[in-house]
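Input/output pair, single chain:
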Amino acid sequence: LVSEGSLKAAIAEYEKLVELESSKNNWAKVVEAKQNLAELYQKVNDDTKALQNQSQYIQLKDSIEQDKKLKALSYYKTQFETERKDKQITQQLSQIQVLNLENKNKQKQVVIVLTLSIFSILIILFVKKYNQSKKEQRLQKNFSHRLLNVQEEERVKISRDLHDSIGQSLSLVKREVQKKQMPDISELLSATLQDLREISQSIYPYNLRKFGLNYAVEQLSRKIENASDLSIKLKIQDIDKTAGEELTLNIYRLIQEALSNVAKHANAKNVEVMVLNKPNEIVIKVKDDGDGFDVNYKMKTSKSFGLQTMHQRMDIIKGKLKIKSTLEGTQLEALIPLA
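Output:
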């Protein structure tokens, strides 16, 4: 186990690193340092600073992504301006300003994150007033559940804004560009629209609501297979009529997190996903042939946010999560009771 003195020394070093890299405008290293500081403060039980650094990490990360998108928008705008030939094209180019809505959406996300962070700090300060550890644990669990629900609600709003507002505006601009026979710009807009659809789908899986769990997991699996060396085998029984929308969404998120962990960390070649609709429960199994890991150790470390989130989701739907891992691979099994 790492001593408290070592942790505090590490915190001091990362604080110096933040100051140094900030002066160099090396924000990528600042983001990484902030994330590590959040984890270190959590280990020394300084929840307030942990949340502050986690919030700053999220804000800086979003700012970097926003800067990339703004540069992309600037590029598209420049292309349009160089191609305009008459008054009608000039009027159409004014519609490119609609893309600035994306920037406003990012600002909304920052406000949401700040609001959640402030709310989190207030809850933690309230919990500190209680002397009994059982009450403190219960409040922290309830907060985690609420936080997950709020995140899902905001994902729906953001995804809808991307699809309905910005997506429709880009489609309008694309049609007008096609009328003017500008193939290069049209191709760029087509690629941007595709990226926008993928971002919207990754934020909230509308395919799940529209076509059901089987189709949504199949699309997710194909996307992961295309981006990795994994081969994913699916055996998914129909649960859409048995499970409600909230339960189905949590099951999808559980499978999504499990497959993401396998793709990132397991060094596996094959994954099998099973969803079984039994009389009194739904059984989910995700099995891979990867390297495996020490489950108990991972759950105790601050970097196991993915595993912790899966356990929190199972608490919400009153399910049980079992993870067995050996050198031959890892198997996740979730048992979810039906009301």
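The chain has a mean pLDDT of 79. The first helix runs from residue 4 to 23.
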